């Protein structure tokens, strides 16, 4: 019988916002955590390439390192926190740490979305463990809930606001009536958006996260390339106004649904009913909605931030320590035992809000409506504002449920009409 | 080295709504749960006094029993689900099961609130385990979150809508403008309220639940008798209207806060800002808000219901099975290592909405305002509706922050005024 652990050593690789947030939370809560777990918890090494830039926390020189090998080669280190981000060198470092039997905690969504299955396999073979609570929803404990309390649930849908940058931009557009460009600039000014915001505004970040959530919810290893992805750059303030008139807000949702034995996987803006628990989640907050056969659950919390994500990492460290102490690593393993194929996007059925830029001329509405009808798309609402004859104006349509293929065909035909300059569709999420 | 479990036997004691909901979820998810855990999971005995009444699920006669001893004395049964409710015989049964080394899962809030500490001690001594996710928030996995992912958080506040009956009544009053009595009758008609609704409408049920949440959040064994408790029976539709005008909704909240080294523990109606994530939680839904030093989290979900609570119980069963399989029972034990005293209610500081029933006579407002001022209560808003001279009318006041003792003294003086018939206060929860 192995003797129970009385001390656990932690190494941190990458000391930016998240790495320093983690150390800060660990140190501030050290007494409480140690008392609760009955184990001494020490950060023994922190590795970063750059010790010049200033941080919110001061690290004694004896703990500082510059080479990940200082942690990987140190057999006294039980738990490695990977807080570098991106695919490499994070992947090689995490893989080696797991091979050496170390428990790894990482909030790296790209790493988990692309290499999660492989890394979990490595962990299984070496008897180590991999935790990644912080990879989705920052400080929201959704991964843990899916692994533990919701494991027995028959989950039908999981969708969420998982990107704070785009939610901030959409909230600004909605609350202040500003354009996408103005809202983006404000987000950049506040540090919520990168100078090159593509990863966020085009939905790549959200696609990583829904791939992770879907894999856990449906026990199927989802390939992130199978996630349909559409960003928020084409949205207009008028879209938000039209949505509001009909009782909706516009949100960028990451969506995974099981329909019979196929998965829908998609990231795109939606009209969400304003009564939905996710509709009032504004700013950089994140939220995740889970619908199972027996319950609808909503989790709301911070999507990013060093200490919020640090708290998620510390939550994982606590779980890791308990498993080390009780020699039960692997007790809450992942089981990707199902293998649901992904439904082709053209077969996905939605309601749509369609915005058409057309000339205000006699018969225009009839021509557009005829094209919808010819493609089998029936309409539930239309709004043509008072406009200037012969000038371009936005006309809005709300369709009934229709397969994506039919809607896209209708848009194609409508765009070819001489009186039409553009046609753009936003999907409607009925919200359960 | 003990051989790893390949089979776990479960006994269910009490086969009402929750017991049958649990068995239904277990059976419907049996294949998935077994595949995920690698263990055969069998319900081998279900005990109830009454096998005549109809249920949503049919149980083969071979599984039926009438005496809890059939489960307690059966050494092949690893996990006991207590779904009787109330203090006795539940307490004696759970205690004996734990003493015999069985893992117990129970959603019994009264049992846990009153006897949780004692039962956890029994479990610790016998090496068994006690789980009670379903005891608070029905299907919301808040207990598990507090035990695991949030264990390292420095929690400052936890409050929630933890009683579906009262939330339904308040939602009806708010959405339909009906009186408390009318809303109660509707709740009773729909089966949401008992014929004698005292446990719900006077806040006893919510007090049990906040005692449990506070104990876990602050690592202090809270005595349920220390929870200040006030129900919803005195609320008027006009209160809701006044609140709405100021941007608030009225909710019955169960509140626990740490202020320096004292705990505030209270259940009472509050004015909650309409922007708060709990403000739009309507009907029988429950929701819990946690504010820690690093993150604000909201959990929303079903507060009751056989299958929703059954799913919470199944979540506990899964955790129990993992701990049996990996021989790590006790890994996520509870640590009531802190001992914060409860702050006397008179020292609690709040804003208040005060409703005064007074005669519309010259100088009334001045007299009332003078009494507030004399007790050091300053006012932030007043509303006196157009009324009939010399008739009774409701005047509303919103105070600034003031200790409970001063407010109560002011009310006492105001009630003594000859022009005043009644004075009633509702606390304001700023929502962090």
From TrEMBL, chains A, B:
Keywords for the protein's UniProt record, in alphabetical order: Amino-acid biosynthesis, Methionine biosynthesis, Oxidoreductase, Threonine biosynthesis
Main enzyme class: oxidoreductase
Top-level taxon of the source organism: Bacteria
Residue span(s) of domain ACT: 353-428
CDD domains named in the record: ACT_HSDH-Hom
One Pfam family of this chain: Homoserine_dh
EC number(s) recorded for this UniProt protein: 1.1.1.3
Pathway(s) where this gene product acts: Amino-acid biosynthesis; L-methionine biosynthesis via de novo pathway; L-homoserine from L-aspartate: step 3/3; Amino-acid biosynthesis; L-threonine biosynthesis; L-threonine from L-aspartate: step 3/5
Annotated GO MF terms: homoserine dehydrogenase activity
Family: Belongs to the homoserine dehydrogenase family.
Protein name, per record: Homoserine dehydrogenase
Organism whose genome encodes this protein: Thermatribacter velox
């Amino acid at each position: 019988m192995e003797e129970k652990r009385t001390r656990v050593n932690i190494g941190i690789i990458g000391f930016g916002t998240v790495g320093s947030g983690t150390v800060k939370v660990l140190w501030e809560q050290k007494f409480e955590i140690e008392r609760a777990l009955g184990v001494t918890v020490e950060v023994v090494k922190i590795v970063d390439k750059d010790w010049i830039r200033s941080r919110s926390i001061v690290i004694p020189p004896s703990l500082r390192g510059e080479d990940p090998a200082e942690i990987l080669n140190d057999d006294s280190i039980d738990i490695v926190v990977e807080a570098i981000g991106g695919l490499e060198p994070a992947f090689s470092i995490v893989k080696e740490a797991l091979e050496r039997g170390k428990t790894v905690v990482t909030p790296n969504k790209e790493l988990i979305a692309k290499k999660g299955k492989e890394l979990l396999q490595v962990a299984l073979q070496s008897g180590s463990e991999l935790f990644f609570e912080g990879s989705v929803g920052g400080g929201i404990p959704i991964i843990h809930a899916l692994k533990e309390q919701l494991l027995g649930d028959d989950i039908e849908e999981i969708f969420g606001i998982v990107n704070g940058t785009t939610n901030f931009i959409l909230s600004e557009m909605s609350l202040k009536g500003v354009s996408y460009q103005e809202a983006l600039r404000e987000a950049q000014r506040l540090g919520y958006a990168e100078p090159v915001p593509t990863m966020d505004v085009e939905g790549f970040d959200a696609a990583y996260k829904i791939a992770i959530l879907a894999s856990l919810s449906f026990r199927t290893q989802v390939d992130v390339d199978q996630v349909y992805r559409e960003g928020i750059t084409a949205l207009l303030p008028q879209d938000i106004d039209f949505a509001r008139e009909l009782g909706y807000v516009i949100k960028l949702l990451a969506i995974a649904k099981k329909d019979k034995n196929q998965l829908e996987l998609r990231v795109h803006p939606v009209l969400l009913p304003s009564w939905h628990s996710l509709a009032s989640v504004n700013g950089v907050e994140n939220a995740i909605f889970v619908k199972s056969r027996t319950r609808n659950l909503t989790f709301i919390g911070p999507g990013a931030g060093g200490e919020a994500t640090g708290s998620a990492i510390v939550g994982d460290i606590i779980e890791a320590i308990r498993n080390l102490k009780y020699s039960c690593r692997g007790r809450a393993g992942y089981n990707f035992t199902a293998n649901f194929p992904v439904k082709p996007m053209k077969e996905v059925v939605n309601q749509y809000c369609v915005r058409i830029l057309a000339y205000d001329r006699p018969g225009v509405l009839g021509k557009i409506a005829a094209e919808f009808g010819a493609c089998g798309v029936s309409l539930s609402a239309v709004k043509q504002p008072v406009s200037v004859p012969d000038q371009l104006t936005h006309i809005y349509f709300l369709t009934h449920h229709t397969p994506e293929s039919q809607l896209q065909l209708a848009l194609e035909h409508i765009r070819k009409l001489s009186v039409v300059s553009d046609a753009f569709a936003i999907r409607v999420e009925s919200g359960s």
